[in-house]
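Sync notes, pocket subgroup
Present: LS, DG
LS reminded everyone that the earlier model was apo-only. Rerun requested with flavin-adenine dinucleotide included. Inputs:
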Amino acid sequence: MVKTAFIDIKRTEPKEAHPRERLKNWNEYQQNLSDSDLKSQSSRCMDCGIPFCQIGMDLNRATTGCPLYNLIPEWNELVYQGKWYEAYQRLAKTNNFPEFTGRACPAPCEGSCTAGLVSSPVAIKSIEQAIIDKAFDKGWVNVRTPKKRTGFRVAVVGSGPAGLAGADQLNQAGHDVTVYEREDRIGGLLMYGIPNMKIDKQVVGRRVELLKKEGIAFITNTNIGKDITMAELRKQYDAVLLCTGAAKHRELLIEGRELKGIYPAMTYLTASTKHLLNPESTHPEISAKGKKVIVIGGGDTGADCVATALRQGCQSVVQFGKHGRLPNERTADNPWPEYPQVFKMEYAYKEAAAVFGKDPREYHVSTKRFIGDGGGQVKALETVAFESYFDEKGNKQLRENHEEKQTWAADLVLIAAGFEGAEDDVFENLNVENNNQCIKTKKNRFETALQGVFAAGDARKGQSLIVWAIQEGRKAAEEVDAYLSRKV
Ligand SMILES: Cc1cc2nc3c(=O)[nH]c(=O)nc-3n(C[C@H](O)[C@H](O)[C@H](O)COP(=O)(O)OP(=O)(O)OC[C@H]3O[C@@H](n4cnc5c(N)ncnc54)[C@H](O)[C@@H]3O)c2cc1C
Ligand code: SF4
C-alpha cells in the first residue's frame, strides 16, 4: 500500500482489443494489464479498516461489494509486493472460479470501493483476472485429489457456476459427486449464454477438466425429471443439490409473435456458441448475417445479442430499452456504496458505434406489434414511446404515449426482456415447491421440504450473477456436508 496512491495514480480501465479488430473474431475482447501497471493499480488500495469492497449484500435491489467476501485488500497488497503465488492462494480461498468472475463479473466490489468516494475505484477486477491467469500460466492451479473418501454419494443437477462450485466443495470434502447436465456440454450459462468474447469456452473446459481429474463425474445429455426421475435419483444418492438455473424467459405476447424470425435471446445465443464450437451445428435462419436486427430489452443479455449479431455480420442492429438513459454520475438516490446506476459504454455498444457510427440503444421504447411480409416472416415492428411521470405517492412510473408511434424494419428480432425464474418443468418434474418462480427452501437455508434435497444458484435466488451462483453453491455445499455428517 502507498498511502496517497489512490490520489496520485489514476485508475487504469481494463485493457481491451480495439472494437474494429476484435469484431473480426470471437476471441475474448479483454486483455490483462502489464505487471508494472498492475503493481501501480494495486498500490491504489488503501487497505481500509472496513473494506467495503468485501461487504457482499443486496442494497436497493443491486449487489454491493463482493458476495464471495474475496480477500481483496490482502491480494491487492500481495500483487503490489510482487508476491503473485501468495496472491493466488488468498484468492483461491474464497473463490472457486476467479477465471469466470475476473472476466465477466460486473464488479460490485468496485462500485463500493472507498477510493471511489473521492476518486476512481481500485481496478479490482483487472487485478483478479491477472492473478488467476498468471496462476494457470505458471502451473500453480493443480489437481487437488481429496485424501479420504466418505462413501457418501451426492448428485448435483445443473452444471452452471452454482452446480460446479457446489460439486467442487463437496468433492473436496470427500464425497463422491456426480453432476448431471441436460445440455451436451458442461458449464450452464458460462457455456451457452455468455458469449465466447466474454468467457472463452476453453477457459470453461480447462476448469471442467481439472474438476474431472479431482474425481467429479459429469453426465451430459441427461435431463433429471425426464430421463431419470427425482425418485430414482434420491434412491441412488445420499443427497441431491438442484442448481437448475432460472431460464424461464419473459415472453412478449403481442400481435405477430408467431412470425418467423423472432427468437428468445437465449435460443439465439446458444445457437451461436454451438455453431462456434461445432461448425456443423448451423441454423442459418437464426444467424444475423446480412439482416436488420432488433433486440428487445435493454439489459446485459441484450448487449450480448448486439455483440453476437455484429460478429455474424448483421446489416444493422438496434436495441430497445424500456427505461431512459442512465445519468453520467450517481444521483442523490443512488449513493455510495450502492452499485452505481450510471451510463456505461459496454463492450457491445463500443463495437456497434465503431461499425455504424452510433450507439445502438434506443430508450423508452414499447413494442406493440410485429408486422409480417405476407409470407410468414417478420419484416417490421411497431412501437410507441414510454414517458415517465410521478404518481400521487411521488414514485416515478412509465406510461405509453401513443402519439409517438414508429415503425422499424427488421428481419431478425431477439427478445431479451429478462427472466421470470426457474422453468415450470422444475416444479412439475422435480417435486419441489414454487416460491415466486424460484425453488422454495427453508428460511435462510438451502434445504427444500424434501429430505436430503437442496437448491442453490439462480434456481433458488432468481436470475442473478456468476459471483452469487458461486457463493450459493459454496454455502449449499456446507449445508449438504453438515446433513451427511449427521448421517454417519
Ligand atoms: C446471456 C446472459 C449473459 C450473462 N452474463 C453475465 C455476466 O457477464 N456476468 C455475470 O456475473 N452474470 C451473467 N449472467 C448471469 C449468470 O450467467 C447466471 O447468474 C449464472 O450462470 C447462474 O448460475 P446457475 O449455476 O445458478 O445456473 P445456470 O448457469 O443457468 O446453469 C443451470 C444449468 O442447469 C441445467 N439444467 C436445468 N434443468 C436441468 C435438469 N432437469 N436436468 C439436468 N440439467 C438441468 C441447465 O441446462 C444449465 O446448464 C448472464 C446471464 C445470461 C442469460
Ligand atoms: S474498499 Fe477499495 S481501497 Fe478499500 S480495501 Fe477495498 S479495494 Fe482497497
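DG: The CA atoms of residues 388 and 398 lie 4 Å apart.
LS: The longest strand covers residues 396-409.
Action: DG to write up.
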